[in-house]
C-alpha cells in the first residue's frame, strides 16, 4: 500500500516534471524563434500579404494610395487575365516554360559540380587549399555587371568561346550565343532533319496559346548561355555550404573505412555522398527556389532580340510593375508574383517528396 | 537643482528663438529628385542646384540623384509622400497626369514660346494644358562610316536621300566585302527595337489612330515602313547589333566599324568620340519616306512640380521658381555649352549646343521640326508588347510585317473597344 | 558528467597519404592540373576586370583581352594646343597582351566629394550595414535554426514551412509594400531601420537548422543534464560546435549586404548620405548608353577586393571543423 502510494507519487512527480520540461521546452522554443519570427513576419510576410491584396485590385502602382479612388477591388480578375483568358495569356506561360527549363538545367549541374569541388578542396594533403577555395568562390563575389560584360565578350560571335570551337571543329558555323532564340531541343532534332512539320500534332495543338511544339523547344540558345553563367556564379556558394557540412563528418569514419581497404572512390561513393545527403537535399531545395526566381542574370544579359526567349516569370513581375512606363500594372505584377510563389511552393513540396528528404525531419 | 532649472529655461528660450527665427524667414524645403546620368552631367546638375540655392537662400533643396529612379519615385508616389520637384520621362507622362501626380503649369512657364512645340506637346494633356517643362531631348538620325562609304564607292548620305538610296548603299557596302577584325562589314546595324523603326513609320504616315479615332496601325504605309527596316536584316545587308560581333547596341556595332550605317540618337555622339576616337564617321538626317515626308522620333524629359505642392502657395511658388530656373533660357544655354548628349529644349540654346558638338549635331536639331514622341495612350501596354514581339518576329523572319502589324492592330482594337 | 571532447580534424582522406603508386601519382598530377584549369576559369574574369580597370574606355571596349601592364602610365583624355579634347585610342594604349596602365577610373572615383560621388561615405555606410546585419543574423538565425532543429514546441513544423515559404517570395514584389510599411513606421533612411529589416533571414535560419540537425543529440543532452540553462548551453556548447556553419553564414550574410542594392534602395535610398557602395557606384557609373567603363570596373574592383580578402580569411576555419570524437561510433 505504502509502496504503491509512494510509487504513485513518484509517478505523478515524474509526469509533472515531464510536463514542466515540456512546457519549459516549448517556452524555450518560442523564445529562440521570437526575434527572427518577428522580423520575418513584419518585413516579409506582411508585405507579401499586402502584395496579395493588391493582386485583387486594379491599382496601377502609381496613384497614391492616399487618394480615395486609387483602386477598386476586382476579385480574381487579374489572375484570370494572366492565366486563363487574357489577351496575352501566352506571356505568362512562355515565361513559365523558360523558367522551368532553366531550373531543370541549372539545379542538377550546380549541385553536382559544387559537391565535387567541395570534396576536392577539403583534402588535407592538398597544397594551396586556401587559394583554390577562394578561386572557386570568386565568381560569387564578382559584381554581376562585370560578369555580364565578361560573358558578352566571351560568348560574342568572334569571342574566345567561338574561337576555341572553331579551332577544334574547322567547319563550325559560329553561333551568336547571346542572341539566338532557337530552342536547343529543336536544334538537336534539326540535326536529324526533324522540324515542326514532322510533328503535325505538336505543331497544331495549342496549350495556353502556345503550340506543344514550342513547349518542347528546350531553353533557347541564349537561355542556355545564361544558364552557364548562373551555374558558374552559384557553384561557389553551394561549395561553401558543402564545405561547412564536410566538417561535420567525423574523420574516424574514413579511417575505419580505409583500414577495411576502401579506395578513395569507394569512400566518396559510400561515405561522403550518403552522409552529405541532407545537405544535398538542402542545396537542391535552395537551388530550385533560387532558379525559379531568376531575375538578375536575365536583367543583365537580355537584349531586344531575345526579349521573349529568355523572359522569366520573376522578370515578368518586374516588367509589369516597373518596366511598362506608359501602362504600369502593379495589379498584374502582384498577381504574377503570387502565382510564382504558389508554383515554387508546390514545386518544393514535390521535390521534398520525390527526393525523400522529408521523412527524416 | 538650480542647474536643472537653468537648463530648462535655456531650452525654452532656445525653442522660442528658433520658432521666432523660423517664422521670420519662413524657409521652404523642396525635395528634388531625378535619375542619375553620366558623371559629368550629374555634377553639372549639382552645380545648377547650388547656383539656385545661392540665389534663393529662403528655399532649401533636398536633392536626390537616384540610382534607380523609376522604382524609387514609384514607391514614393504609392506612399503619397513624393518630392515637390522631379523629372518625368515622356513615356511616364500620360500615366502621371492620369494619376493626378502633377501640378498644371498654367501660365507659369517663362518664355514658353522658345520651347520646341513638339516637345511641349509631349508634356501636355489632350486639351493642350501643359504640366511639365521640357528640359532636353534627343532625336534619331543616320550615322554613317565615311571610310566604308568610300571603300564601297558610295556617295555620303544627304538630307534628300530616299529609302531606296539607303537600301542601295547598304547593299553596296555589304557587297564591297570589307572585313574588320575578321567580321564582314554589313550595311546597317538595325536593333530590333520599336523605338528605331517607328521613325520610318512616322515618316511614311503611319499612325495608331486616324482622324476618326479608328485604329490604323496596320495601314499599308505603316506595314511598308516595318518591311523597309526589317528588310535590311532579312536580306542580309544589315543585322541586329548582337549579330555584328556580339555588340551590345547599335552604337557599339557601328563604333567598332562592323556596320556602314546605323539609326541612333545624339547620345551616341559622346560615346563614339570617347570610345572610338579613331572612327571616321558622319551624321545625316534620316532619308525621306515614299510619302515624301521626313520623320524621326524624339525622346525627352521634363521638370515637373508635384500636385502636392499646389496645396501650399508658398511651396508652389518656390517649386515653379526652381523649375523655371532649371529649364529657363539661361540654364538651357549652359546645358548646350556643356555639350552633353541631349539637346536643350529651347530653340534659343540650339546654337550653343551645336557649337559644342560640331557639325555632327546639325541633323539632330533639324529633326526637332518633324519629330514625334512615340508614346501610346495609357492602357495600351498589351499593344506595345505585341509590337515589340512582332518586331523581333519580323526581323528574324518568323512573321511577315503585314501579319505582325495586323495582330498588334487587332489587340489595339480590342483595347479600344473595352474603353 | 563529462562534456564531449571537441578536437579539430574534419573529414579527410589523409589515411591514404603517402601510399601513392606511380600510376596514381600521374592521376594526381592530372587532377591537380584540372583543378588549376578550373581555378583559372573562375578567376580569369576578375583578373581581366582588374586589368581593364586600369585602361581607358576605348581600350576596354576594343582590346579587353590585353592583361599585362607595362610602363609608361598614361592619361585617357588630354587637351591639345588647339583646345580640342583628345581621347587615347585603343591602339595607342595596347599592344598584344600588353597595355599602358592609366589610373583615371580610380582617381575619378576617389577624388569625388559631391553628392553623386562620395566613396568614403558609401564605404563607411556599407561597412556599418554589413557588419550589423551579419551580427544580427549570426545570433537570430542560429537561435531560430536551433529551435526548429531541436526544440519541440507547438507550431514548430508549421513555422519551418513558413520560413521556407519566406524564401520563396519573389523579391521584386516586396519593394513597394515594404516602402509603404517602413514609411508608416518612420524607419526609412536610418541605420536601425536597415538593421531591423534584415537582421534575420529565411536562408540563414534554414542553413543553421540544417547544421544543428547534424550535431549528435547526445552532446547537448549531456550538457542539459548538467543542469545548465538552455541559453547558456546554446551559446557555450552548441554554437561553438556549429562554427563551420556560422562561418558559412557570416560569409553569405556579409557578402549579401556588401552587394545589396535592392533592399538598400528601398530602405535607405532617398537620402544620399545613407547610400551604400552598390547604390553609389550605380549613380556614378551613369545610365543607359552613357556608361563609363573605366569607372564601372574600378568600382567593381573596389567592391570586390574586400570581399575576396574576407573570404580568404574566413575560409581557413573550414580546416578546423569540429569532431565529436567522444561519440564516434554511437
What does this structure look like?
- The complex is a heterotrimer of chains A (361), B (419) and C (330).
- Chain A is mainly α and 361 residues long.
- Chain A has helices spanning 2-54, 77-85, 89-121, 129-141, 144-154, 160-168, 184-191, 200-204, 212-215, 221-246, 251-259, 264-275, 277-292, 296-301, 313-323, 330-355; strands at residues 206-207, 210-211.
- In chain A, strands 1-2 form a two-stranded antiparallel sheet.
- In chain A, a hairpin with a 2-residue loop joins strand 1 (206-207) and strand 2 (210-211).
- Chain A is globular.
- Chain B folds into two domains: 26-138 and 299-372, Periplasmic binding protein-like II (D-Maltodextrin-Binding Protein, domain 2, 3-Layer(aba) Sandwich), CATH 3.40.190.10; 139-297 and 375-418, Periplasmic binding protein-like II (D-Maltodextrin-Binding Protein, domain 2, 3-Layer(aba) Sandwich), CATH 3.40.190.10.
- The termini of chain B are far apart.
- Chain B has 17 helices and 13 strands.
- In chain C, 61% of the residues lie in helices and 4% in strands.
- A three-stranded mixed β-sheet of chain C has the order 1-5-4.
- In chain C, strand 2 (77-79) and strand 3 (85-87) form a beta hairpin.
- In chain C, helix 4 (104-111) crosses helix 15 (293-315) and helix 5 (119-150) runs antiparallel to helix 12.
- Chains in contact: A-B, A-C, B-C.
- Chains A and C meet through helix 1, helix 4, helix 5, helix 10 and helix 11 of A and helix 1, helix 5, helix 6, helix 7 and helix 8 of C.
Amino acid at each position: 500500500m505504502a509502496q504503491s502510494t509512494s510509487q504513485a507519487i513518484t509517478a505523478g512527480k515524474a509526469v509533472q516534471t515531464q510536463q514542466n520540461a515540456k512546457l519549459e521546452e516549448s517556452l524555450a522554443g518560442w523564445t529562440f524563434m521570437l526575434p527572427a519570427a518577428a522580423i520575418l513576419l513584419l518585413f516579409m510576410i506582411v508585405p507579401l500579404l499586402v502584395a496579395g491584396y493588391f493582386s485583387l485590385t486594379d491599382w496601377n502602382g502609381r496613384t497614391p494610395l492616399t487618394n480615395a479612388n486609387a483602386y477598386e477591388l476586382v476579385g480574381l480578375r487579374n489572375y484570370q487575365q494572366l492565366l486563363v483568358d487574357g489577351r496575352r495569356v501566352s506571356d505568362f506561360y512562355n515565361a513559365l516554360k523558360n523558367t522551368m527549363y532553366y531550373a531543370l538545367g541549372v539545379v542538377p549541374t550546380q549541385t553536382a559540380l559544387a559537391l565535387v569541388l567541395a570534396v576536392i578542396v577539403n583534402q588535407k594533403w592538398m597544397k594551396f587549399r586556401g587559394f583554390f577555395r577562394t578561386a572557386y568562390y570568386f565568381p560569387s563575389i564578382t559584381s554581376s555587371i562585370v560578369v555580364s560584360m565578361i560573358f558578352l565578350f566571351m560568348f560574342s560571335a568572334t569571342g574566345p568561346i567561338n574561337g576555341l570551337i572553331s579551332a577544334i571543329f574547322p567547319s563550325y558555323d559560329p553561333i551568336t550565343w547571346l542572341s539566338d532564340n532557337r530552342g536547343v531541343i529543336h536544334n538537336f532534332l534539326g540535326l536529324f532533319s526533324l522540324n515542326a512539320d514532322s510533328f503535325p500534332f505538336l505543331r497544331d495543338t495549342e496549350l495556353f496559346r502556345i503550340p506543344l511544339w514550342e513547349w518542347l523547344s528546350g531553353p533557347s540558345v541564349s537561355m542556355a548561355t545564361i544558364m552557364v553563367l548562373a551555374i558558374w556564379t552559384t557553384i561557389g556558394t553551394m561549395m561553401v555550404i558543402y564545405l561547412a557540412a564536410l566538417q561535420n563528418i567525423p574523420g574516424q569514419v574514413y579511417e575505419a573505412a580505409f583500414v577495411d581497404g576502401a579506395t578513395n572512390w569507394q569512400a566518396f561513393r559510400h561515405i561522403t555522398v550518403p552522409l552529405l545527403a541532407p545537405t544535398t537535399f538542402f542545396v537542391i531545395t535552395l537551388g530550385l527556389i533560387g532558379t525559379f526566381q531568376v531575375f538578375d542574370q536575365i536583367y543583365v544579359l537580355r537584349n531586344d532580340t531575345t526579349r521573349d526567349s529568355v523572359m522569366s516569370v520573376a522578370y515578368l513581375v518586374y516588367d509589369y510593375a516597373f518596366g511598362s512606363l506608359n501602362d504600369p500594372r502593379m495589379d498584374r505584377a502582384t498577381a504574377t508574383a503570387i502565382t510564382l510563389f504558389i508554383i515554387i511552393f508546390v514545386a518544393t513540396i514535390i521535390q521534398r517528396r520525390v527526393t525523400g528528404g522529408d521523412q527524416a525531419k | 537643482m538650480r542647474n536643472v532649472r537653468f537648463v530648462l529655461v535655456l531650452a525654452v528660450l532656445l525653442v522660442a528663438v528658433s520658432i521666432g527665427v523660423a517664422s521670420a524667414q519662413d524657409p521652404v524645403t523642396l525635395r528634388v529628385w531625378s535619375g542619375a546620368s553620366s558623371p559629368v552631367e550629374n555634377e553639372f546638375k549639382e552645380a545648377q542646384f547650388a547656383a539656385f540655392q545661392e540665389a534663393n537662400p529662403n528655399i532649401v533643396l533636398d536633392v536626390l540623384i537616384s540610382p534607380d529612379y523609376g522604382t524609387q519615385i514609384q514607391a514614393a508616389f504609392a506612399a503619397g509622400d513624393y518630392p515637390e520637384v522631379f523629372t518625368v520621362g515622356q513615356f511616364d507622362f500620360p500615366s502621371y497626369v492620369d494619376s493626378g501626380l502633377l501640378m498644371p503649369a498654367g501660365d507659369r512657364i517663362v518664355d514658353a514660346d522658345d520651347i520646341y512645340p513638339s516637345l511641349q506637346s509631349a508634356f501636355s494633356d489632350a486639351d493642350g494644358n501643359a504640366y511639365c517643362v521640357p528640359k532636353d531631348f534627343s532625336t534619331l538620325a543616320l550615322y554613317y562610316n565615311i571610310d566604308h562609304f568610300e571603300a564601297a564607292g558610295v556617295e555620303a548620305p544627304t538630307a534628300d536621300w530616299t529609302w531606296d538610296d539607303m537600301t542601295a548603299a547598304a547593299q553596296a557596302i555589304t557587297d564591297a566585302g570589307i572585313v574588320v577584325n575578321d567580321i564582314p562589314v554589313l550595311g546597317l546595324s538595325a536593333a530590333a527595337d520599336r523605338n528605331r523603326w517607328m521613325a520610318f513609320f512616322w515618316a511614311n504616315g503611319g499612325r495608331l489612330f486616324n482622324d476618326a479615332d479608328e485604329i490604323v496601325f496596320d495601314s499599308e504605309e505603316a506595314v511598308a515602313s516595318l518591311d523597309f527596316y526589317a528588310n535590311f536584316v532579312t536580306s542580309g545587308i544589315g543585322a541586329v547589333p548582337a549579330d555584328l560581333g556580339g555588340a551590345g547596341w547599335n552604337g557599339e556595332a557601328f563604333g567598332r566599324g562592323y556596320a556602314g550605317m546605323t539609326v541612333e540618337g545624339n547620345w551616341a555622339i559622346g560615346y563614339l568620340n570617347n570610345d572610338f576616337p579613331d572612327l571616321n564617321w558622319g551624321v545625316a538626317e534620316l532619308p525621306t519616306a515614299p510619302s515624301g515626308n521626313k520623320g524621326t522620333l524624339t525622346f525627352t524629359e521634363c521638370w515637373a512640380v508635384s500636385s502636392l505642392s499646389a496645396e501650399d502657395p508658398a511651396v508652389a511658388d518656390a517649386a515653379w521658381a526652381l523649375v523655371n530656373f532649371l529649364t529657363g533660357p539661361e540654364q538651357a544655354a549652359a546645358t548646350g555649352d556643356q555639350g552633353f548628349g541631349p539637346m536643350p529644349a529651347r530653340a534659343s540654346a540650339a546654337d550653343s549646343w551645336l557649337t559644342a558638338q560640331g557639325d555632327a549635331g546639325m541633323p539632330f536639331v533639324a529633326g526637332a521640326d518633324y519629330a514625334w514622341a512615340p508614346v501610346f495612350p495609357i492602357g495600351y501596354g498589351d499593344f506595345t508588347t505585341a509590337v515589340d514581339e512582332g518586331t523581333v518576329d519580323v526581323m528574324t523572319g518568323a512573321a511577315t510585317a503585314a501579319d505582325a502589324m495586323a495582330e498588334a492592330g487587332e489587340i489595339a482594337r480590342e483595347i479600344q473597344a473595352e474603353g | 558528467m563529462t562534456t564531449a571532447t571537441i578536437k579539430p580534424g574534419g573529414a579527410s582522406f589523409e589515411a591514404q597519404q603517402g601510399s601513392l603508386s606511380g600510376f596514381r601519382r600521374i592521376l594526381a598530377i592530372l587532377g591537380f592540373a584540372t583543378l588549376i584549369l578550373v581555378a583559372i576559369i573562375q578567376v580569369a574574369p576578375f583578373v581581366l576586370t582588374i586589368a581593364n580597370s586600369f585602361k581607358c574606355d576605348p581600350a576596354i571596349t576594343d582590346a579587353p583581352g590585353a592583361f599585362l601592364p607595362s610602363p609608361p602610365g598614361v592619361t585617357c583624355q588630354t587637351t591639345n594646343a588647339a583646345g580640342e579634347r583628345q581621347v587615347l585610342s585603343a591602339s595607342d594604349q595596347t599592344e598584344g597582351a600588353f597595355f599602358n596602365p592609366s589610373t583615371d577610373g580610380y582617381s575619378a572615383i576617389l577624388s569625388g566629394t559631391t553628392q553623386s560621388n562620395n566613396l568614403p561615405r558609401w564605404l563607411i555606410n556599407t561597412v556599418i550595414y554589413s557588419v550589423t546585419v551579419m551580427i544580427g543574423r549570426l545570433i537570430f538565425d542560429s537561435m531560430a535554426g536551433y529551435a526548429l532543429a531541436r526544440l519541440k514546441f507547438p507550431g514548430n513544423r508549421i513555422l519551418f514551412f513558413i520560413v521556407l515559404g519566406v524564401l520563396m517570395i519573389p523579391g521584386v514584389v516586396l519593394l513597394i509594400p515594404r516602402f509603404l510599411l517602413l514609411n508608416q513606421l518612420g524607419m526609412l533612411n536610418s541605420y536601425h531601420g536597415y538593421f531591423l529589416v534584415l537582421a534575420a533571414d529565411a536562408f540563414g535560419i534554414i542553413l543553421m537548422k540544417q547544421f544543428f540537425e547534424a550535431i549528435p543529440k547526445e552532446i547537448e543532452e549531456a550538457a542539459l543534464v548538467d543542469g545548465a540553462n538552455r541559453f547558456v548551453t546554446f551559446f557555450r556548447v552548441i554554437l561553438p560546435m556549429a562554427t563551420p556553419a556560422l562561418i558559412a553564414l557570416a560569409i553569405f550574410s556579409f557578402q549579401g549586404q556588401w552587394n545589396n542594392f535592392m533592399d538598400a534602395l528601398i530602405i535607405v535610398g532617398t537620402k544620399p548620405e545613407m547610400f551604400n557602395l552598390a547604390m553609389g557606384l550605380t549613380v556614378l557609373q551613369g545610365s543607359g548608353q552613357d556608361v563609363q567603363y573605366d569607372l564601372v570596373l574600378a568600382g567593381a574592383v573596389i567592391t570586390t577586393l574586400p570581399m575576396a580578402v574576407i573570404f580568404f580569411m574566413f575560409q581557413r576555419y573550414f580546416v578546423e571543423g569540429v569532431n565529436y570524437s567522444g561519440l564516434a561510433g554511437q
